[in-house]
Amino acid sequence: MARRDWTEKLRVYLVTDDRPDHGEVAAIVEQALAGGVTCVQLRRKQEDGGPMLKLALRLRELASAHGALFIVNDRLDIALLSGADGVHVGQTDLPASLVKSRFPELVVGVSARSVGEAAQAEHDGADYVGVGSVYPTATKGDAVLTGLDVLAACKRAVRIPIVGIGGITVERAADVLAAGADGVAVVSAIMSAQDPKAAAAAFVGRTFMNT
């Protein structure tokens, strides 16, 4: 996949939550994709491989049907077996340099909380960096608050795309993009919305208005 093609798909980036009902997760993702979400990341930190692979295969199918990017958090094995477009790793997960060198066809994202971490991710071959938490969030208990200033500094420091994550609402999306982000990553604002399709469409309308 050409960089321009997948970079544009980082614009509205949905990250799944840890709710136990896989059918519910898939239904929400399907609605969000119908609303225009351009990327889906499967994030299941506490899940066994077998059940997670089954869910990954379903989300891969849904993302493909809507022309969206499909990323798996941390689990390289699940990403490869499900035919995902890429894998996203944190600072203590698999080394981005090793993943990229062994599997150059994968889109590799790295979480960063500072300019130094973003620069290192680029040096290691990462294709994009997820910066945050931009705002306070209850989704990830150990999230470090970075704010818009760090996001903007990361954007100036690297040439690869930047995705803002953490506490981003529709109302805050424009500020995140104005700070330099190429996309916004969202969890609860869509996953916990009463109408995930409408919530996704609201993000799409707000973010693509700023292109």
How would you sum up this structure in a few lines?
Helix content is about 45%, strand content about 15%.
- What's the overall average pLDDT, rounded? 94
Task: Strand order, main sheet: write it out.
Answer: 1-2-3-4-5-6-7-8
Class per helix and strand makeup: alpha/beta
CATH C-level label: Alpha Beta
CATH-derived architecture: Alpha-Beta Barrel
Binned, the helix content reads 40-55%
Number of domain modules: 1
Protein described:
With 211 residues, this protein is of the alpha/beta class. Helices cover 45% and strands 17% of the residues. The protein contains 10 helices and 8 strands. It has helices at residues 3-8, 22-34, 49-65, 76-82, 96-102, 115-123, 147-157, 170-178, 188-191, 196-208, and strands at residues 12-15, 39-42, 69-73, 86-89, 107-112, 128-131, 162-165, 183-186. The protein has an 8-stranded parallel beta barrel, surrounded by 8 helices. α3 crosses α4.
